[in-house]
Automatic annotation (TrEMBL):
GO molecular function, one term: D-tyrosyl-tRNA(Tyr) deacylase activity
GO annotations of cellular component type: cytoplasm
Pfam families in UniProt: Tyr_Deacylase
Family to which the UniProt record says this protein belongs: Belongs to the DTD family.
Top-rank taxon: Bacteria
Name under which the protein is recorded: D-tyrosyl-tRNA(Tyr) deacylase
Protein source organism: Shinella fusca
Matches recorded under InterPro entries: Daa-tRNA_deacyls_DTD, DTD-like_sf
């Protein structure tokens, strides 16, 4: 946890996932807090470009596509970063 992707010679697979913005109150999830598709795509592409600019190899999913992604989570930690709450 003390080393970055650059430190370990890692790579990033960056896949958009608007469902992380789901509001889960009620019977069905809502996505009104997710960015509109055009803005989401711009943010996704900007983030990917910024990671690549750090010299980190980047592979991308297809924005808005139905994709099946498998991963092996190496480590016991998942951290939610809520930038809105400061």
């Amino acid at each position: 946890m003390n080393r970055s992707l650059a430190d370990v010679g890692g790579a990033a697979l960056i896949v958009s996932q608007f469902t992380l913005a789901a509001e889960t109150k009620g019977n069905r999830p809502g996505f009104s807090t997710a960015a509109p598709p055009e803005e989401g795509k711009r943010l996704y592409e900007t983030f990917s470009a910024n990671v690549a600019a750090l010299g980190i190899p980047v592979a991308n999913g297809i924005f808005g596509a139905d994709m099946r992604v498998e991963l092996a989570n190496d480590g016991p930690v998942t951290i939610w970063l809520d930038t809105a709450s400061g």
